[in-house]
Design a protein that fits this description.
Strands 1, 2, 3, 4, 5, 6, 7, 8, 9, 10 and 11 form an eleven-stranded mixed β-sheet that branches. Strands 14-15-20-17-19-18 form a six-stranded mixed barrel. About 50% of the residues lie in helices and about 15% in strands. The chain has 25 helices and 22 strands.
């Protein structure tokens, strides 16, 4: 009952001071809104269960490769034969499934559409616990060659491509120019393993593929048995891997297994950034609380007589503190309501950008968990903001206050207000330092050389269905014709093709160097392998620093040749000329390839690479060699260098390809500059968010300094008037007020720098090309914050000079 009375009284008090209430609610709303927005994303990505039955039992099982061959790599895709052994020998999983990503040409309709597909083992859907809304999923036997022409459609693809036709089950559709029977449609929540799946096909292995341990192309998902944890599963998978290493030393020596929760794998890349942002908004909220606490202390003088009267009438100190805390909690709850609106707007923007970094769609919304979080944060913010003012006010000297009529006696406490300013400045500097490091990191990424010239470069992907051409020679002939015709187009300077473009990763293969001791496949070093046409390097402007480039004579029947990067040359022939050296790609044993040139280094995996790739290039035309007996149609990416804006050549290039083969789909048409921008979008998002929160913190800190000084000037009108009457100059008054404002700001700067240095390790994995203790960044943000603090003192200082000394003397 007492709490209800205090609540009603608190509302009346706040209504009497609308200006103060509005400012306090706005400040708290900004801090709470920022926390609500980020927590909504954290809740969706890190806390909310995955949309699978008993999702906490789902895991990925990876290979761990030999560190001698794969230094620094801790997770690797899985080979077919090892998966079969894992499946048969384990006792910790209710089920295991394996899958690979693929691209298929869907030729139903008036034009071809190249879509992402997933080839899966028949246990895939049962392991996930997913059931179709129409038809069925795969059954045993449909993973056999000749019996694998069934397809399960994703819900959204079924809706968009087939109009949600419920009669689709049992119908045939053309995939890669072959008939496939639709056997089922999954529900809208099934979006594994990609964010926007289209269809699933049965994974059918040839007898040769079933015993292959050397090629790692697949991912394994498994469901733990009830009562089995990851630690126990890891122990068993380690034991199985050790047995396989002894049984198949040529392929499996030093290869292990790693069991990782499915959630950790799906969100692991964004977890550090989200936690950093969550910490940043917590700092913003603390700054907002300190700001409101200072506003409350500034009101303390006006309420000192009220508090004294309440004390004189018998109110205990605990009752006074309770009353004052209830008032601040009420303010914070209203701030929380405003924060929900701000959070809703911010959540949509953040979710839009963060989705690009996730392999799974996450439903980011202000659900019940977020509402509870916002309410809890609001109450906590109210308590934090109100505790110091309530404690100070409750210590009012009753007799002195009543005797002086509340006109004097600083019940707020100068030292308390200064301490709050110190906290605001320190927290602001820590946020600014983080934002500054992220800005420097993005700047470094933009300035990093990828190893090629991205200007005026058009790229596009031409994935070719597996059975589109009858032989490798026929497909290579298509590519040669396409490159020749595109090169002849107006405005085209160079054109080339490659299986994988830089910054996007690609194939890795072990090698055996001629003349060196033979090694087991498991111990052979791996290098990045790329298939290119002779025109690729000139089009990308990747230099050949030694030897020669590929030419039209590097074809069937000629010496198998390769190019290597400078990093590969330095790695394997540090003090020798690699030209003329010979090696074998271990997936094609017996086929010796000769090095004819050394190229410049290219960043194949991302601009943030710190070490150059050991890269090996093979000529496209030699894919028709006998070692490719298991040849399947491949697809390449075109790179077209133009004399003008690359987008202007898009229509001419695509029309040329259509004239040669109208059934080929053309995807991912973009400039290389755009591709580079896409590759650094996660870093750009992190920088923008952290900079936004740091900017908000800077504004709040400036408001805090301004409010404290404004209050101090009002409190010292009499003192300043007397000083001026006794001869103090305007410059003396300015110096006095600015010094008072800058003193806690400077202390805050020093503490903030120390805090930023201590927290630098948190950002270590998010920055590139800059140390987390970078002196230039710390100096720059300190100067910015000091300048803002100085500006915040100018207006109160100027007001102090407007004091009329004669009026002050008359009042005395």
């Amino acid at each position: 009952m007492k709490v209800l009375q205090d609540l009603k009284y608190g509302l009346r008090v706040l209504r009497k001071s609308p200006g103060f209430s509005i400012v306090a609610v706005l400040v708290l709303g900004l801090g709470i809104g920022a926390n609500t927005a980020i927590f909504s994303v954290v809740n969706a990505v890190l806390l909310r269960p995955l949309p699978f039955p008993e999702a906490d039992r789902l895991v990925h099982v990876w290979h761990t490769p030999p560190q001698k061959a794969f230094p620094g790599i801790t997770r690797f895709s899985v080979s077919t034969a090892n998966f079969i052994d894992w499946q048969q020998q384990n006792h910790v999983f209710d089920g295991m499934a394996i899958f690979s990503r693929a691209q298929v040409n869907l030729t139903a309709g008036d034009k071809p559409e190249f879509v992402g597909a997933t080839t899966v083992s028949t246990s895939f859907f049962s392991v996930l616990g997913e059931k179709p809304i129409l038809g069925r999923t795969f059954v045993e036997g449909e993973d056999q060659i000749g019996h694998d022409h069934e397809v399960v459609l994703a819900h959204d693809f079924w809706q968009s491509r087939f109009g949600g036709d419920r009669g689709i089950v049992g119908r045939q559709i053309a995939i890669n120019n072959e008939p496939y029977t639709v056997i089922g449609v999954m529900g809208p929540g099934m979006s594994y393993p990609s964010r926007n799946p289209k269809l699933w096909l049965p994974l059918a292995w040839t007898p040769k593929e079933r015993v292959n341990r050397g090629e790692h192309h697949s991912i394994v998902v498994a469901r733990l048995k009830p009562g089995v944890d990851i630690k126990k599963a890891q122990a068993e998978m380690t034991a199985i891997s050790e047995r396989l290493a002894q049984q198949y030393p040529e392929d499996d020596k030093d290869w292990g297994a790693k069991v990782v929760s499915l959630r950790e794998d799906l969100v692991g890349d964004v977890r550090p950034a989200l936690l950093v942002l969550l910490g940043a908004v917590a700092f913003v909220l603390l700054i907002a609380c300190a700001n409101v606490a200072n506003l409350l202390l500034a009101r303390a003088l006006a309420r000192s007589r009220e508090i004294a009267v309440r004390s004189a009438l018998g109110a205990s100190r605990a009752q006074l503190v309770q009353q004052l805390l209830i008032e601040t909690v009420v303010l914070a709850v209203f701030g929380g309501l405003l924060g929900l609106l701000i959070g809703k707007l911010g959540t949509g923007l953040i979710a839009k950008f963060i989705a690009q970094q996730l392999s799974q769609p996450m439903q980011v919304a202000l659900d019940g968990t977020v509402l509870v979080f916002t309410f809890a944060v609001s109450v906590l913010a109210g308590l934090i903001a109100g505790l110091a003012p309530a404690w100070k006010l409750s210590k009012t000297n009753v007799n002195e206050t009543l005797k002086q009529g509340g006109r004097s006696g600083d019940t707020g406490g100068n030292r308390t207000r200064a301490a709050l300013v110190v906290c605001e400045v320190a927290l602001s500097l820590m946020l600014l330092a983080g934002a500054g490091l992220m800005v420097r990191s993005l700047w470094n990424l933009r300035g990093a050389s990828p190893g090629f010239d991205a200007s005026n470069l058009l790229t596009m992907s031409l994935p070719v269905p597996q059975n589109r051409y009858k032989s490798a020679e026929e497909e290579i002939n298509f590519w040669n014709q396409a490159l020749t015709r595109i090169r002849a187009l107006p405005g085209v300077q160079e054109v080339g093709a490659a299986d994988d473009l830089p910054l996007q990763g690609g194939s890795h293969q072990p090698i055996a160097i001629e003349g060196r001791p033979a090694q087991a496949l498991s111990e052979q070093p791996e290098v990045d392998v790329r298939i290119i046409s002779p025109g690729y390097l000139p089009a990308m402007r990747i230099p050949v620093v030694r030897g020669r480039n590929f030419n039209d004579s590097d074809t069937l029947g000629r010496q198998n040749v390769i190019l290597i990067s400078q990093a590969m040359a330095k790695r394997f022939w540090p003090n020798e000329d690699p030209i003329g050296k010979r090696l074998t790609l271990s997936f094609f044993p017996g086929v010796v390839r000769e090095i004819v040139g050394v190229t410049g280094d290219v960043k194949l995996d991302g601009l943030d690479q710190t070490e150059a790739n050991s890269a090996l290039y093979t000529p496209m035309a030699q894919l028709a060699m006998p070692e490719h007996a298991d040849w399947r149609s491949f697809g390449l990416n075109l790179v077209v260098r133009t004399s003008a804006e690359p987008e202007a050549a898009t229509a001419a290039v695509t029309n040329t390809i259509r004239q040669l083969d109208s059934q080929l789909a053309i995807t991912d048409v973009m400039s290389m500059d755009h591709l580079i921008e896409e590759s650094i979008s996660p870093q750009r998002l992190n920088m923008l968010l952290l900079a936004t929160f740091a900017g908000l913190a800077l504004v709040l800190a400036a408001m805090g300094i301004y409010s404290v000084l404004s209050y101090a000037v009002r409190r010292r009108v009499r003192e300043i008037g007397i000083r001026m009457a006794l001869g103090a100059q305007i410059s003396d008054v300015l110096r006095l007020v600015i010094y008072e404002g800058m003193k806690p700001a400077v202390v805050g700067l020093v503490i903030g720098v120390a805090g930023a240095l201590a927290l630098g390790r948190v950002l270590a994995k998010l920055v590139f090309g800059v140390k987390t203790t970078d002196p230039a960044t710390f100096a720059a943000v300190s100067a910015i914050l000091a300048a803002v603090a100085f500006c915040a003192t100018v207006v109160p200082a100027w007001r102090a000079t407007r004091v009329d000394p004669m009026r002050t003397l008359r009042d005395e």
